[in-house]
């Protein structure tokens, strides 16, 4: 089994953190999906990472599918509860975090993609996407305001991993927006997460 991805993708980082938490060995094969000679379409016709290639050659994508599969491979550190309300809560937090990343990526592409001339960029579109990211972070902050260490109670779950990857990516790619300001509980969550090897070792290169 191998993971195709990049060192800066927050979606790839989510998978890598899950691999570390589950203590699963899986080599990372670096791929630049923006390169003219990228080969990612051989494994994922959508041309996106992460993509998990299984031993028989079958490929899994996107990150939500991959982490759910990985959580079944080892009993160590269960990250997604069994079907029921708790599972739905964890998956909803993951969807919120992924949505914040989606919005941040769209905002950054609109502002920086070299395929678009300066006069073709839409500040209103950028602001709309950043508004979604801000709303997601505010929701995460409220979810932590009652003093519990993790989003879904006393134990780390996929909810925290997804949220941490989202916040870290927004801080990495859009530092001018100071995401930690006004989010003390979310900041504390990030500090807890960075004490875990899976997060510390997957920090994107500066």
TrEMBL record:
Q: What keywords are annotated for this sequence in UniProt?
A: Transferase
Q: What Gene Ontology cellular component terms go with this record?
A: cytoplasm
What SUPFAM superfamilies would the database entry show? GST C-terminal domain-like, Thioredoxin-like
The entry lists its GO molecular-function terms as: transferase activity
Instruction: Tell me one Pfam family matched here.
Output: GST_C_2
UniProt-listed InterPro entries: Glutathione-S-Trfase_C-like, Glutathione-S-Trfase_C_sf, Glutathione_S-Trfase, Glutathione_S-Trfase_N, GST_Omega/HSP26, Thioredoxin-like_sf
Start and end residues of each GST C-terminal domain: 83-206
Q: Which Gene3D superfamilies match?
A: 1.20.1050.10, Glutaredoxin (3.40.30.10)
What positions does the domain GST N-terminal occupy?
Answer: 1-78
Q: What is this protein called?
A: Glutathione S-transferase
Source organism of the structure: Oryzisolibacter propanilivorax
Lineage of origin:
Bacteria, Pseudomonadati, Pseudomonadota, Betaproteobacteria, Burkholderiales
């Amino acid at each position: 089994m191998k993971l195709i991805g990049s060192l800066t993708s927050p979606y790839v980082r989510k998978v890598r953190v899950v691999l570390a938490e589950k203590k699963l060995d899986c080599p990372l094969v670096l791929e630049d999906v923006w390169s003219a000679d990228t080969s990612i379409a051989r494994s994922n016709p959508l041309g996106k990472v992460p993509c998990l290639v299984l031993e028989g050659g079958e490929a899994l994508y996107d990150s939500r599918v991959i982490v759910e599969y990985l959580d079944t491979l080892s009993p160590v550190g269960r990250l997604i509860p069994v079907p029921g309300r708790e599972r739905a809560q964890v998956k909803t937090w993951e969807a919120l975090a992924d949505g914040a990343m989606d919005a941040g990526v769209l905002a950054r592409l609109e502002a920086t993609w070299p395929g678009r001339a300066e006069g073709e960029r839409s500040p209103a579109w950028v602001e709309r996407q950043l508004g979604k990211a801000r709303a997601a972070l505010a929701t995460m902050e409220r979810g932590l305001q009652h003093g519990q260490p993790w989003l879904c109670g006393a134990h780390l779950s996929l909810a925290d991993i997804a949220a941490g990857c989202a916040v870290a990516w927004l801080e990495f790619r859009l530092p001018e927006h100071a995401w930690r300001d006004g989010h003390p509980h979310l900041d504390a969550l990030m500090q807890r997460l960075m004490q875990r090897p899976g997060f510390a070792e997957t920090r994107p290169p500066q």
